[in-house]
Each structure stands twice: as C-alpha cells, then as structure tokens.
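Task: complex structure prediction.
Instruction: return structure tokens for all chains below.
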Amino acid sequence: MKRMENIFDLSKNGAKKVYIDGELFPIRVGMREISLQNGEKVLVYDTSGPYTEENHTIDIQRGIRKVRENWTRERFDKQNFHTQLWYARQGIVTPEMEYVAIRENQGVTGENRITPEIVREEIAAGRAILPSNYRHPEAEPMIIGSKFLVKINANIGNSALGSSIEEEVEKAMWAIKWGADTVMDLSTGKNIHKTREAILRNTPVPVGTVPMYQALEKVHGKIEDLTWEVYYDTLVEQCEQGVDYFTIHAGILQEHLPAALKRVTGIVSRGGSILAKWMNINKKQNFLYTHFEEICELLKKYDIAFSLGDGLRPGSIADANDEAQFGELKVLGELAKIAWKHDVQVIIEGPGHVPMNKIRENMDRQIVDCAGAPFYTLGPLVSDIGAGYDHITSAIGAAMIGWMGTSMLCYVTTKEHLALPNKDDVREGVVTYKLAAHAADIAKGHPGAAERDLQMSKARYEMRWYDQFNLSLDPERARRMHFEMIKEGADHCSMCGPDFCAMKITKSIL
Amino acid sequence: MKRMENIFDLSKNGAKKVYIDGELFPIRVGMREISLQNGEKVLVYDTSGPYTEENHTIDIQRGIRKVRENWTRERFDKQNFHTQLWYARQGIVTPEMEYVAIRENQGVTGENRITPEIVREEIAAGRAILPSNYRHPEAEPMIIGSKFLVKINANIGNSALGSSIEEEVEKAMWAIKWGADTVMDLSTGKNIHKTREAILRNTPVPVGTVPMYQALEKVHGKIEDLTWEVYYDTLVEQCEQGVDYFTIHAGILQEHLPAALKRVTGIVSRGGSILAKWMNINKKQNFLYTHFEEICELLKKYDIAFSLGDGLRPGSIADANDEAQFGELKVLGELAKIAWKHDVQVIIEGPGHVPMNKIRENMDRQIVDCAGAPFYTLGPLVSDIGAGYDHITSAIGAAMIGWMGTSMLCYVTTKEHLALPNKDDVREGVVTYKLAAHAADIAKGHPGAAERDLQMSKARYEMRWYDQFNLSLDPERARRMHFEMIKEGADHCSMCGPDFCAMKITKSIL
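Output:
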C-alpha cells in the first residue's frame, strides 16, 4: 500500500501532524500544522487520523489504531454504558466532548474558543451530535451542530455495476485525505457486509449507512418480501460492525404518498421509494415508523445516531418546498423528540433540489419543526440543468444553507445524475464541499475560521508561493497549476506577467 | 478552421439555430431550439451568433457577418447618431431594444414577457445598458440590467508570457460557444492592437477592454511616463476599432490611498494599482477623474458604455467592505450621474473577495450610491483558500449577488491566482458562471427561466437520456460522463444500478 501511504505524506505540503493534549482527560487530539516560510505556523482541523502520522504503514487486513478503545471499555466494564446525550444531560463532560472542543478551536485560545462545556450544552439540548458507536473505536470524536464547524460527508460504496472492496476502502481513505468528516457507505451491490467491514476497520471518521439497502439485498431486491424482521436483523448486524449513524426513512407515511406521486420527479430518495412501494403493496403504515421506539432502544445500546432520512426530498426545482416535503419534515420532528426521550442522538436530513429563493424557508422550518436538531442536507442543488457540474450547482446551495445553520453537508459529485463517481470525482467533490463549508464557517463567524484565509492573503501579497499552495484546500492542484506556466522562484504569476502585477505595483508605492 | 466549425455543430446536441422575426423592425433574432424525444421543443438564449448557422464557414481574416451594419448606417446618413440611452429617454424604441426583448423571452409569450417598452424604460432609467459601439456591427444586441437575464463575461487575452492572436480568437469563439454574453480582451503583451482587431471582427457579442493596459504598453510599462494624452489616444484607437465597453478606473482618488495601502492585500486591481502609483508619483488627482467629461463626450460618439472600474475592490476576505472600497463606490456613483448627463450608458464594477455575510451590503450600497446603475461583479469569492477551485469559490458569491440584483457576472477560472487560463479553463469557467447566472435567474423569478429545468426534470423522470444531455449547459460533458459507465439504451444509470433507481420504483407504484 505504498501508493496510498504516499498520499498521506504531509511533508510534501509543508505540514506535519501534531497533537494537543487534553486538560481534563488523557487524550491527544491530532491536528495538522502548516509551517510558513516566514516562520509562522497555522493549525488546522484534520480528518486523516493515524494515516498522516510519520511512518504509518497501511494494512487493510489489520485496520487502524482503535483510538477510543480504552475510553469505552472502561465504561463497559462498569456495566454502565450511556450515550453522549445521556452524559450531556447529566451535566457530565466526556473525553469525547473535550476532544471535539480542542479540535474545533484550531488553535484559538481566547474567550471565543469552544469549551468542553459548550459542547456538552449543545449535545444536551439536541442541537449537536457526537456520533460514536463503541464498536467503531477507530473513529476519532467529531461533532455535528450549528455552533460548530460545518462538516461534510462523502458518499462512497459500490452499485451493482462496479468496483471492488479494495477500491471502496481506497475511496474512503481518499475522501478523508481531502477532508471528509464522515463517510457514508451506500453500497448496494455484492459483498455489502465485507465492504463495510473493511471500510469501518480502516476509517478514522464516523461511518454512516442506509440499512435499507442491505435489507433489500437480503430479500433479493423484492420489495414485497421486505419485513420488519429482515430489517431489524440487518440493523443489528450493522450495529455490531460499528456503523456510527443510520439513515432511516421513518418519516415517509402513507398519507404523504398522494402528494408525492403527483410531483414532476416523484420520489428520488432510494430509501423513500422503497418504503413508498412497500406501503403501497401492503396497504400498511411505514414499518420504520411503527417500530420506531424499538429502533431507538437498539441504537441506544451502541450510541448510534439517527440520521432521519428525507424520503420525500425534492428531486427538481419544480418540487421544492412542496406539501410532500414539508409534510414529512413535521413527522421527522416528532420522531426526533421520541429519539431524545430514549437518549438517542438525532440529525435530520434535508434536500435536494431547491432554488436559492426557497433555501431560507427550508432552514427556518427545519429549526422549528425539529426543535433545533442538526440539519444535514444534500446540496441543495440550485438548478436542474447542471449535469456534469452538479458539484458546483449544489455547492452554491450548500454554502448558503451552511451559513444559515445547517450542520453537515452531504457532497454531490460532478457525476451526480449521470454515473458513479471515481476517485477523481471524490476528490473534486470533497474539496468543493470543504470550500462550501469553510465559506459558511467564515460567514457565520466561527471563531478562527477566517485565520487561514488571512494567512493565505498575506502569503499572496508577499508572493510566498509555497505558503499559498500549502494553505490551500488542495495544495497539490494549486502547485501543479502554478508551475505549468511559470518557473520556480518567480516574483509574479502568469496571470498578469511581471509588469502588470497589481500587488507588486502597490508595494512599490509604499 | 474545420476544427472550430465542428464545435459549433448544434445538431450533435439535438438542437438547431432558429430565427424569430421582429414585429416592429425587420430584424431576425437567433435562438437555439432544442428538440426533445417526446416532440416538444425548448427555445433557449444563444450567444454563438452566425457560427451555429448551418454551413457557416470560418474565415478569421474576413470576420463574421455585420448584423447591425444597416441599422446603424441609416442613422449615420442622417447625421443624427445617438446613444441607446438618448433614444430611450426620448421614448423611442430602437431595433436593438426590440431585438433584446425577443432574446430575453426565450419563447415566453404571456403577460410576463419582456416587451420592447420595458427594455426602453430600463435603459432610460439607467438601470440597464445595451452596449453597441456602431464600429462593432458584428455584435448582436444584448442587454445588461437587473430586470433581465443575468449575463456573464469571460476574460480572455494574452499576458507577456504567452499565447498567439489565433489562440485568443479561438478562446473568444470557445467562450461564446459555451455561453459568454460578453468577452473582455485583457491582453497586456505583444500585438495588443492586432489581437483586439481579430477578436472584434470575429465576435458576435459585445467586447470590453481596459484601455489602461495598452496605454501603459505605449509608454513601455513606465507608469511615470503615463499621460492623459497617451491614454486619450489609446481610447480613440479602441473606439474606432469597435470596443463596446471600457473599464475605466476613474473612481480611485488620492484621498482613498491611505486606507488602501493599509490593507492586507493592498490594491489588487491592475488598473487601480497603476493609477495609485501614478497619483503617488505625480502628487496629482487621477487623470481619468479630472478628464471624465472629455471621456464622456468621446464615448457618446460611438455609444460605448462605461464600465466604471473598482480599482479598490477587496483582494481578500479581510479587506471586504472596507473604507477604501466603499469610498470609491460613492465616487463611481457620482461619475455615473455625469455619464448619464452626457447620454452615455454606465455599469459599475464590483468585488472581488467578500464573505457571504457581507455580500448583501455590497448590493444594497451599490444600488443606493449608484442610483440603480447595473452592477457587474467579479465573483465575489467567498473565501481566500480555494486556489485551484476558485471558479467555484466565486460562483457561490456570484449566484448569490446575481439573485440580489447584480446584472452581469465576470467569470473567474479555476486558475485564478495561479496562472493564465487555457481553453479547458475557459470552458469550465464559462459553464460554471452560466450555472450561477441561471440559478440567479430562477431565484429572482425571471419569466420562463425555470422552464428548461422543468423540461430537464421531466426528461430525468422519464429516463430520456439524450434530452437530459441536450438540455444541460454542457451536453458534451454530460454525455461523456454517462457513457463512461453505461451502455446505450439503459433504463437506469450507474449511480444506483438497475434495481435501486428511485424513479423507476416510484413509477412502478403508479
């Protein structure tokens, strides 16, 4: 795996892995430190886990270090495992909470910094989650909530048409290299169990799934054969493997279907369409809704979070903010309150395709209907005609809704609506979404978020080219583009040439 | 030029060039008609001029058809040439005004359609411009104003470091193929005059320039040798060639410099930095400001529009919305009123780098300070750390400010801050900006703007793949991505595979 180890070599980009020790607990929080040519150092959030440690060797069979193993075992031995939400409500700060507070600060130390107590408060109020299945101790703690850095998720997973287990693990590694805060394994083809196992054992960020996909594979794709029992067994299987959050489409109900079926693009959520068909065949209510409290009791045992799926998210501008979508959203809010009753953490999934003028209403309604539970959106895409550029169509909506308060953005790749993304598409999608999330962090005034931009701008003004590359979200691409046209050591770039550099001229005035 | 002719073959994308006749004048307005597999037709705005006519042959030496030649000659023979603004103020609808009204409608015929009278009113009020140097009769009329479709500009032009005349003309053709509404020739290297001549004679959209660049070349790059006379001669030369709008940095004044020089990134506008240095050397006021009325009188003779340059646009998040920027904006507003006094059309240039939370203030202040003159922004970029992805960083800001009322968006390419864009970058930049502009058109409710999205969504739901490609902004890319993984005629795509297609499942319920 030398090839994959090379992609995690931070020294090529003027950076190294550093650790900040906890004050309350014996924890070490990994960060990335970028060293600048002027001697300054910039500390940034890092999602790459042990991969970027010096001399780390990759062994997919063995998996990565179980960073949280001791923390959780201690709680287990005492037979008193609880969810992060339970602890938070008791007023107890956990090691996980201190960990994410340190991570979020990126070196900010003043009054504005995020404290472990703020983390606890936000979790207790249901406004943030800290996904942490104890069976996935490889995952470093991270937090999803509107008071924190906007997070991004990268979807990976094979479909019936392609890709091996190793390819999927490499996609997961690739995604976290570029900054994915969580990955969702959306495999629907062969080897679902084994693919997921390999991903979990090798991924230092929380992993999400849509268990319905595997449940349906178990009944050979026959929706009429789906039962609560098959689904429940699948849940247990995935709980045990270590999945940190489940997309569960428990909010789509029989009464929503007439409105949904009248739409321009009907139901575009795979999980939503499966349940709609099941309800239609069986003339019964959604079994995820009727069995919701049983699911709560199961998830509570592992501290797995709900990601309440929006089976009725709009698939076109024409369907945005319609009766079907907002009808389901209200149900998701009711379910969130039930989950909280069981001390289970919850996030709410959102659209989809939404024109810019209708984005604000999505955010405002979600906050009210779901009592402040974190919002997790797919884009939204602000037009339907961007095929081949939908990472951009959706990044526009994502940045806006992130600023308005959405806590996590699910990336959309350039191949959306067209094909399954390859590694290049994953990189392009992740970096695009890091940009959207970062723009949202700046706009909402997250402490220290604009510090990296400030350092970048100073480097730009002083023509410190390597600092510019290293402070970028994709140093390798920036470096390559620059050197395609210019020699090492130039005091200008090929955009304006040597005589027309505005910054050079400005400095010559001073 | 067979190679370039091939890029304009609309039939490959299920489309053809059609013409709509004027009702008031004997004009023919070229549009693109996309034929769908279900027999429906979609009419869309088209910027490609005669290039997409069947059997059009390209001859760069000869140039393209002079579509407006007869319209303007008639006015000249009578010795009573006036600007579009003059006509509009007299209550006179010109052929150009009817032309743009037909173009803007894209087939919308109802009460919401844009009428020639609406065009006239908007121009008369200074809220829109119709750039139309009579010496550039190759340009098809188009309108820039907040009541109309959001337009995009693509910058081309060589720098001291590269590219030939032919390459620049091909870049212009390439830009209009993908939808650029205007192009700016920002050449600063050799052969400025000849490059511009070739671009003008071969470009069916308005062409803008920054005359200062050539003026500076005339004094061999020595800012201290710049004079009003050299600049004025350059203006006359470019007026005669047929440039349709000039970026003129007449608003940056001596009194702004102390604030500008204290900034993190100083002055990042090339024109602005040149004038700042000139003022500093000569201890005199900006000569473009002191000679502004002379410029008005010159531009009026050709109906060339001012694009009042923002020499003090912020080059970093840290400098956004600062004293220097808004100080200059007020001066631009005063100058706009002077230009209007001379019946000269005006747009106002805007930033730059602006975080999302500060975009609205830019738009609101511009409307007030510049009395509603159209706003023309560069992005804005919503973060500084997107090097290598700045077409996206800026498209986020561009879409938002377009929705808020900006009339034209200047594209930013992926190479921004790094290198001069090549043809691939121009395509990526133009299509990205078409998307941003289109998203803004939808959000602001432009009549019929969402029709193409609706057709696309219906095609998606019905798995009409070729219709999806042909309705996309970049049909060629969409088609290529789709067929990389799937065979012709499939009833699903490789994203979800045959069994997990939500739309298929939805339809099976009905």
